[in-house]
Design goal:
Number of domains of chain B: 2
Number of helices of chain B: 22
Largest interface: A-B, 41 and 38 residues
Helix content of chain B: over 70%
CATH superfamily of the largest domain in chain A: P-loop containing nucleotide triphosphate hydrolases
Order of helices and strands of chain B: HHHHHHHEEHHHHHHHHHHHHHEEHH
CATH architecture of the largest domain in chain B: Orthogonal Bundle
Number of strands of chain B: 4
Oligomer: heterodimer
Radius of gyration of chain A: 24 Å
Number of strands of chain A: 16
Number of helices of chain A: 17
Largest sheet of chain A: 6 strands, mixed
CATH architecture of the largest domain in chain A: 3-Layer(aba) Sandwich
CATH class of the largest domain in chain A: Alpha Beta
CATH topology of the largest domain in chain B: MetI-like fold
Strand order of the largest sheet of chain A: 6-7-8-3-9-10
Distance between the termini of chain B: 59 Å
CATH class of the largest domain in chain B: Mainly Alpha
Number of domains of chain A: 3
CATH topology of the largest domain in chain A: Rossmann fold
Distance between the termini of chain A: 70 Å
Chain lengths: 441, 582
């Protein structure tokens, strides 16, 4: 079997029919990854994009050997991966530096664990620190460094062990825009100039432009359960210009994929077309903040957009992150305030009316739309109307949600619903007692 | 320079050559080694039961006694540390062990510390016949019990709290479980553990004084130490000697604080995960010595080398090891059945233990007496509640007043900490003297002794809580004209509530423990006894009546557990959920 797989042309690392189910203690498991086939070729950078909760980070952890797959296998150099192996290194979103070790100590840690002799350890660590541009900070503790410098330590720690494969878990998302850009540029320089021994990189991200800039190939993950929706080659010449037509086209394409559901079910439903799948009680409502939603609808309806906008453009002008944007666009479509297609968004009549209305009238429109389009809210309202005292404990609805969602997700969805319901003045919520009611304080 | 004196010195790297700090470091190291040697020799001295151990009230002997007491403290602390590391690690790593270990810890925590002494002394003496070591062990064990549970809980909580990303990084970079325990988990737990150790040692002084003079079931031994010195002073009604002992204790605690805890606290700051900026602690002189004296750099190098050897020896790297994919469904089912079986075993053990205790006590004790002991517990409960309430009324306003003045607070905090560490039992003779002199009601006037040492925790935490209140809030209150009662009700009381609860929990725990020594106090041949479970346990201990000691300890335990569950934990949750400032 060994010989069969270790051919030189095969992928560096391959995932074969990976499924992952989270087993909740009291009810059936919830599928987060659904039969994913994936291969990383030598000399390739692959970006994995998806909405939050699409299981892309989980998938990366399965590849890393940090989380076991429920089904399927990961093959690296002819061996199945069940635990972290040498040759694969990872960079974390939160840096994950040991605060009690200096920069040098952090970088040396992996070598130390491998039993590399002290002198060699020091030499290799200093070289990695040098390469990543951390000279002069060897003796600093992580808390003395800025976010960008900390992530450089994260990169140095990964590169010092000479990995074949570098796994990057949203490495730039905790950094400010400018810092992220610099670090991304430096990483690409190292890669293009072959100054690091790494043969392949997998980048998990929710920033579309970042992915289009770096990757040779973009995998778009669909949600619920996580699956591969599209595999888009990105062969633009490097260095890539964000403003070039080719670049914008790929960005638009990915935006289009991420802001529509595969069947277009939500969009069709919002337009009142027949054949739409139902948004049930257990639907994972996007946790859109009301304030952001109002801001976005207003921006969309005002000039220069006047009701229709290119999503990446709108995201940039409103300074909303891609991750938030997906959530907001999903909410807009769900509530019937807008329709997204092909990376564009257009406000519906209701959306325009909402933008034009005053504060009180907005609440009425909002209430009307959530009652109509969010079955969970309609359900809660109905229960409250029917019950004596017009009140019900939140645990009751939480239990219903947990039939469909994980505990955490259920909590998040209920929080969203409470937020929306409060804004719409459909019901009140008492934090101390944990009850929903119709009374208005 | 070495060549000029013609000394054949190996080419030592610059950082390892001696400097001025070594001038302090060298005597300290040698002194510690000598002291440890002398004391361990003394500890294991031959001894026959009944033999009189001479304790002299001559203050010239106090330094030697003090050294013995300190060594007991250090030994207990070392054992506590080892115990808590092991226990917490197992509890945090094994889900099944956790189910057994954590409830046990919870109960151990509520057992009165002097109860341990009464129960274990016979066993320890039997372990080392013809030597003083058995008694030493019993005393050290009592101190150990005053520290270990607390520290274990702190470690266990820290271990569980290690951030997921750091865990993943450790695995990703192939740290073995052993390595990641020492490089990740223990460092992560360090700040909390250090703080906890300091608090535990504060409590420990109280018990070191109480446990040196052992008087259990015919064993009447006074181990050389400050506690025995004061016991002797009480027997001989020597007020001057009591004063000397208090003075000696003062010096001891100050030294402990300067040499052990100030440096530890400052050093542990570097293990804090967040702390950008924050309050920087002034590096204490002792830590400066440790960090600057080259002698210690040398030791550090040696340790580093050892660790290197270890990690090379444990190089069991997952070099692309191929594992059989486990039959997952079958494994899950098996796990579940093992869980059920384990739960059943735990239940059986618990039921059997309960049955044994009931049988043991029932053979000796009538229902009537049992009810009487319950009543005694209730009396002590009332004392604790009233005292905590009184202490709150006194110390909350004072604490807030101090806390609002930062410069004053910074000066007062160390003093309060010191007061909390000072063993209040040293002052008991004074109280007895006063009660007898002024013919006061024993039932009432013995009570304040219970809270004498523990009230400081309330003050300490209230000051801390007030200082943590953002000044913005005060500005807002001032701006809106919120004053007097409204200011207390809407601003200060909710703001300091979490801190107050923390302090009050500690204070009440300490008071329960103190009841055993404070409900029955002596001065020469005058003995004052108040009604309460503490006095009951103390009397039964002296008589060596084991079923009754067990009954007393169990009932006290029950009260503490119920009190914690029904009152403190609820308040704690309330504070956590609603009144946190972030």
């Amino acid at each position: 079997m060994d010989q069969a797989i270790t051919t030189t042309n095969g992928p560096l690392i391959a995932a074969e029919k990976i499924s992952k189910t989270y087993q909740a203690p009291d009810h059936a498991g919830r599928l987060v990854l659904d039969r994913i086939d994936f291969g990383l070729k030598e000399g390739e950078i692959v970006a994995i994009l998806g909405k939050s909760g699409s299981g892309k980070s989980t998938f990366l952890r399965v590849l890393a050997g940090l989380t076991p797959a429920s089904e399927g296998r990961v093959v690296y150099r002819g061996h199945e991966v069940h635990e972290p192996v040498t040759g694969i290194a990872m960079v974390f979103q939160t840096f994950a530096l040991f605060p009690w070790l200096t920069v040098l100590g952090n970088v040396e840690l992996g070598l130390e664990a491998m039993g590399v002799p002290r002198a060699e350890r020091r030499e290799r660590a200093l070289k990695a620190i040098d390469v990543i541009g951390l000279d002069g900070f060897e003796s600093a503790y992580p808390k003395e460094l800025s976010g960008g410098m900390r992530q450089r330590v994260g990169f140095a720690r990964a590169l010092v062990v000479n990995p074949d494969i570098l796994l990057l878990d949203e490495p730039f998302s905790a950094l400010d825009v400018l810092t992220a850009e610099t670090l991304r540029g430096d990483l690409q320089d190292l890669w293009v100039e072959r100054r690091m021994p790494t043969k392949g990189i997998i980048l998990v991200s929710h920033n579309i432009e970042e992915a289009v800039e770096i990757a040779d190939r973009i995998i778009v993950f669909g949600s619920d359960p996580g699956c591969i929706r599209a595999d888009i080659p990105d062969t633009l010449p490097r260095p890539r210009d964000w403003a070039s037509a080719g670049f914008r086209q790929i960005v638009d394409q990915v935006y289009g994929l991420l802001t529509t559901t595969p069947q277009g079910a939500v969009g069709r439903r919002a337009r009142g077309e027949p054949g739409a799948t139902d948004v049930g009680i257990g639907y994972r409502l996007p946790s859109a903040s009301i304030q952001q939603l109002i801001g976005l609808i207003e921006a969309l309806c005002l000039p220069p957009y006047s009701g229709r906008a290119d999503l990446p453009h709108l995201a940039e002008s409103t300074q909303i992150s891609d991750e938030d944007m997906f959530v907001l666009v999903e909410a807009m479509q769900l509530l019937g305030f807008g329709n997204a297609a092909g990376g564009d968004i257009e406000a519906t009549a209701a959306g325009r009316a909402f933008a034009d209305a005053d504060i009180l009238h907005r609440k009425q429109i909002f209430a009307e739309h959530i009652l109509k389009n969010v079955p969970l809210i309609a359900h809660i309202r109905k229960v409250l109307d029917e019950r004596g005292g017009h009140a019900a404990p939140e645990s009751r609805f939480l239990a219903e949600l947990e039939d469909h969602l994980s505990e955490e997700e259920a909590q998040r969805v209920l929080e969203t619903v409470i937020n929306w319901g409060r804004y719409a003045e459909l019901f009140a919520y008492d934090y101390d007692r944990g009850t929903l009611s119709l009374e208005n304080p | 320079m070495a060549e000029r004196w013609g000394l054949p010195i190996v080419a030592w790297p610059q950082r390892l050559r001696p400097n001025y700090w070594d001038g302090i470091a060298l005597p300290v190291v040698i002194g510690v080694i000598l002291l440890a040697g002398w004391a361990s020799q003394q500890m294991a001295a031959p001894y026959q039961p009944g033999q009189e151990l001479p304790i002299s009230l001559d203050p010239a002997n106090l330094p030697a006694y003090g050294a013995r007491t300190v060594l007991r403290m250090i030994a207990a602390l070392a054992f506590s540390l080892i115990f808590s590391l092991g226990y917490a690690a197992i509890a945090a790593k094994s889900r099944r062990a956790e189910k057994l270990l954590i409830p046990i810890l919870d109960i151990l925590q509520s057992v009165p510390i002097l109860g341990f002494l009464s129960i274990t002394v016979t066993g320890f003496v039997a372990l080392f016949p013809g030597s003083l070591l058995g008694y030493e062990c019993a005393a050290i064990f009592a101190i150990f019990t005053s520290q270990a549970w607390n520290m274990t809980f702190s470690l266990y909580q820290s271990f569980l709290g290690v951030p997921m990303d750091l865990r993943e990084a450790a695995r990703m970079y192939h740290l073995t479980p052993w390595q990641s325990f020492w490089r990740l988990e223990v460092p992560y737990a360090m700040p909390q553990l250090t703080w906890n150790m300091m608090m535990s040692v504060s409590g420990g002084w109280f018990f070191v004084v109480a446990s040196e003079a052992i008087s259990v079931a015919g064993h009447d031994v006074k181990l050389p130490g400050i506690g025995s010195y004061i016991a002797m002073a009480i027997e001989q009604r020597d007020l001057a000697a009591v004063a000397y002992a208090i003075l000696a204790m003062l010096v001891l605690i100050l030294a402990y604080d300067q040499i052990l805890f100030r440096p530890l606290l400052a050093w542990s700051q570097k293990f804090k995960v967040e702390a950008i900026g924050g309050d920087e602690v002034e590096p204490p002189w002792f830590l400066s010595m440790l960090q600057k004296a080259r002698l210690f750099a040398l030791a550090e190098g040696a340790i580093d080398y050892l660790r290197m050897l270890m990690s090379r020896a444990r190089r069991g790297l997952p070099q692309l090891r191929r594992l059989e994919a486990p039959g997952r469904a079958a494994a899950v089912a098996r796990e579940r059945w093992l869980d059920y079986a384990w739960n059943a075993v735990l239940l059986l053990i618990a039921a059997y233990t309960l049955w044994r205790i009931v049988a043991f006590v029932q053979a000796e004790v009538t229902m009537h007496e049992f009810l009487h002991v319950l009543f005694l517990g209730f009396v002590t409960l009332i004392r604790v509640v009233v005292l905590i309430a009184l202490a709150a009324c006194v110390w909350v306003p004072i604490g807030v007043w101090i806390g609002l003045r930062p410069t004053l607070a910074h000066r007062v905090q160390p003093i309060v900490q010191f007061l909390a560490a000072f063993p209040a039992n040293l002052f008991f003779p004074v109280a007895v003297f006063l009660i007898v002199r002024f013919h006061l009601n024993v039932e009432i006037w013995v009570s304040p002794l219970m809270i004498l040492g523990t009230q400081w925790y309330i003050l300490f935490n209230v000051i801390g809580g007030t200082m943590a209140l953002p000044t913005d809030y005060q500005y807002v209150a001032g701006n809106l004209g919120v004053t007097r009662w409204l200011w207390w009700r809407r601003l200060i009381l909710p703001a300091i509530f979490p801190a107050f609860v923390t302090g009050a929990v500690t204070a009440s725990g300490g008071s329960w423990n103190a009841s055993i020594v404070s409900e029955i106090v002596k001065w020469g041949n005058t003995t004052l006894v108040a009604t309460g479970i503490g006095a009951y346990i103390a009397q039964q201990t002296e008589a060596g009546d084991f079923p009754r000691i067990a009954l007393g300890v169990a009932v006290l335990c029950l009260y503490v557990l119920a009190f914690n569950r029904l009152l403190w934990r609820r308040l704690y949750n309330l504070a956590e959920e609603r009144l946190r400032l972030d």
